[in-house]
Design brief:
With 577 residues, the protein is an alpha+beta fold. It has three domains: 3-110, no CATH class; 153-327, GAF domain (Beta-Lactamase, 2-Layer Sandwich), CATH 3.30.450; 412-573, Histidine kinase-like ATPase, C-terminal domain (Heat Shock Protein 90), CATH 3.30.565. Helices cover 48% and strands 18% of the residues. The chain contains 15 helices and 19 strands. The chain has helices at residues 43-46, 67-84, 89-105, 113-154, 160-175, 200-204, 227-235, 244-247, 251-256, 261-272, 304-371, 377-409, 421-436, 458-474, 540-550; strands spanning 3-4, 8-9, 21-27, 32-40, 58-64, 179-184, 191-193, 197-199, 220-222, 239-241, 276-284, 287-296, 417-420, 442-446, 453-456, 481-488, 499-506, 555-559, 566-573. It has a five-stranded antiparallel sheet with strand order 8-6-12-11-10, with helices on both faces. A five-stranded mixed sheet has the order 14-16-17-19-18. A three-stranded antiparallel sheet has the order 3-4-5, with helices on one face. Strand 11 (276-284) and strand 12 form a beta hairpin.
Length: 577
């Protein structure tokens, strides 16, 4: 638009040829210069697309120091300007008058060198700055493109191992070090297994001193005795060693590094043929998640762009690892919620069944006794006995809930003492006979040739034996057989050689092989709630597992399948003689 400020601005008509030209006219007492040019548009610009790169634009025109040509160009421009800005006619008239006087005097040629040199120098400096700016922009764009492409590849998976594998491959292919390692580690870890490695040798066939670049894949990489790793983990900043051999000869290292640290680093460098070493920490919120290592089998200078790229990728890998861990934790939480929902449903179903049945019996007995005062004494006794039995059944049910809750919360105070195993088994059998009477299957204890004393809490051992025997009796016919055996672990079992293995086996219904672990879950029931032939809450074996774990033992089940019997094994610490 037309404007009058420090300079006069003239808005040409877009159809005017001057609207597409660039004119620079300088006229002074000693200097004269003129630049008149027009931009040459390529086919792609003629279509109306935007200019993408300034340095790619081309201009055609004239550049002269001839004073007569300069005056003539100025005269033409001023005459054209007065058409668009008539209000400037007085000023333009004065300028044209000066030009007329200048031309009438004749032109005295003076050297244009001072002005020309300054102008050319200025233009060259501007072009150089522009070129440097474009180079910086291109380098930054290349770096951002690499980071984005590697980040995209990394973020395709929520599996932490796949994230590390993709990051190792992509970073190695971009920078082409002799070796690229990315591993998860904490600052206090002593060693790490190298599961992700990129080898330049494998990609390009390079050789080092006529030998292949050695692979460190699946090796245990020493961290505790590597002061370079310790320094990076402590400072949380990258370290680049351009020449490992020269670096390790510095006298300051012997004063700052622990004893034998230099030998340890030399051993690692020799193992991997490392002559230049870059180590960059993978961080998230000031927490070390892992490390990126680039190894070069020849001395290698530090390149700022490469260091910035590796740092950017380390940041992206740290973010990806946290996202993957969050997803895994979310899945675990979902599974826990599903397990809690199943537990709640089972609890409602089982409690509804196990409490409603005895409560109904007790209610019927009490109502009968209250409404029939003339009931025969014998029938009254039957009613009372039924009510007492079901009340005891409810008491045991509630006791099982409380017992499992105490065991799982860790509120049990274990009284570990030397106990005779035979006595504990006898107490469990006595409790079982009082409950079942004469309807028990045949029970055969066999404890010959075993150490007589064990180191456990006797009360809880009796409880575990009672639960296992009660479970065997429930699922074994009266004509069946139950065995109690004990076997001392052999020395082949290493740390378990001081344990005694107790086995409670039966000839009952058996267990499907796929359910041998499920039977120890809370509220597990072999039969559905609507077709159960055996009472119980499904807490007995869960209680047994908690008890056995409490004294450091293990418990497991074995069975050949349905109707082929089952055997429950658990271990007890024995008294060393």
């Amino acid at each position: 638009s037309n404007r009058s400020d420090e300079y006069e601005t003239i808005a040409f008509d877009p159809k005017d040829g001057l609207a597409n030209e660039w004119h620079l006219v300088v006229l002074g007492k000693q200097e004269a210069a003129c630049l008149i040019c027009r931009e040459r548009l390529g086919d792609e610009l003629k279509t109306g697309s935007l200019l993408q790169v300034d340095q790619g634009r081309r201009f055609e025109g004239i550049w002269t120091f001839d004073r007569e040509i300069v005056c003539h160009a100025a005269e033409l421009l001023l005459q054209r300007i007065v058409v668009y800005r008539p209000e400037l006619a007085p000023k333009i008239g004065k300028a044209l008058l000066k030009l007329t006087k200048e031309r009438s005097k004749g032109f005295k040629q003076t050297t244009p060198d001072p002005f020309a040199e300054r102008l050319v120098t200025y233009l060259q400096a501007g072009q150089y700055k522009l070129s440097k700016a474009y180079q910086a922009i291109a380098a930054q764009e290349h770096k951002e493109r690499l980071v984005n492409s590697i980040t995209t590849a990394i973020r395709r998976s929520l599996d932490p191992e796949e994230v590390l594998q993709v990051g190792t491959r992509e970073l190695g292919q971009v920078l082409l070090p002799s070796r690229c390692l990315i591993y998860r580690a904490r600052s206090q870890d002593e060693s790490v297994r190298l599961n992700h490695e990129f080898l330049k040798d494998a990609e390009s066939g390079d050789r080092v001193d006529d030998h292949s670049i050695p692979s460190l894949y699946r090796m245990d990489w020493d961290l505790a005795n590597n002061p370079i790793f310790q320094q990076v983990a402590a400072s949380q900043e990258a370290i680049f060693i351009e020449n490992v051999s020269a670096y390790l000869t510095q006298e300051t290292l012997t004063q700052s590094w622990p004893p034998n640290a230099i030998a340890s680093v030399q051993r690692l460098a020799k193992t991997g043929k490392i002559q230049a070493w870059l180590m960059v920490p993978v961080l998230h919120q000031n927490r070390v998640l892992g490390m990126i290592e680039l190894h070069y089998c020849q001395p290698h200078p530090a390149v700022e762009d490469e260091l910035e790229l590796v740092n950017a990728i380390a940041h992206q890998i740290g973010t990806a690892l946290i996202q993957a861990e969050s997803f895994a934790n979310l899945e675990d939480l979902n599974q826990q919620l599903e397990a809690l929902e199943r537990t709640r449903s089972n609890l409602i179903a089982i409690v509804g069944h196990e409490l409603r049945t005895p409560l109904s019996t007790i209610l019927v007995c009490l109502e009968s006794l209250a409404s029939e005062p003339d009931m025969p004494f014998e029938l009254q006794q039957v009613m009372l006995q039924s009510g007492l039995e079901d009340a005891d059944r409810m008491r045991k049910l509630i006791q099982d809930f409380l017992t499992l809750s105490r065991l799982e919360s860790g509120r049990i105070k274990w009284l570990v003492e030397t106990q005779p195993l035979q006595e504990c088994i006898d107490l469990a059998l006595s409790s079982l006979k009082n409950h079942y009477g004469q309807e028990l299957p045949s029970i055969e204890p066999d404890l010959t040739g075993i150490p007589p004393l064990v180191r456990v809490d006797g009360e809880w051992l009796v409880e575990a034996l009672s639960k296992l025997l009660d479970n065997a009796c429930k699922f074994t016919e009266a004509t069946g057989r139950i065995q109690i055996q004990a076997v001392q672990r052999s020395q082949e079992n290493g740390d378990q050689s001081h344990m005694l293995e107790v086995i409670v086996s039966d000839t009952g219904r058996g267990i499907e092989p796929s359910r041998l672990e499920s039977v120890f879950e809370r509220f597990y029931q072999e039969e559905g709630s609507l077709r159960r032939s055996v009472g119980g809450t499904g807490l007995g074996l869960a209680i047994c597992r908690q008890i056995v774990s409490g004294w450091g033992g293990t418990i497991w089940a074995e069975s050949d399948g349905k109707n082929r019997g089952s055997a429950f094994h658990f271990t007890i610490p024995i008294v060393e003689m």
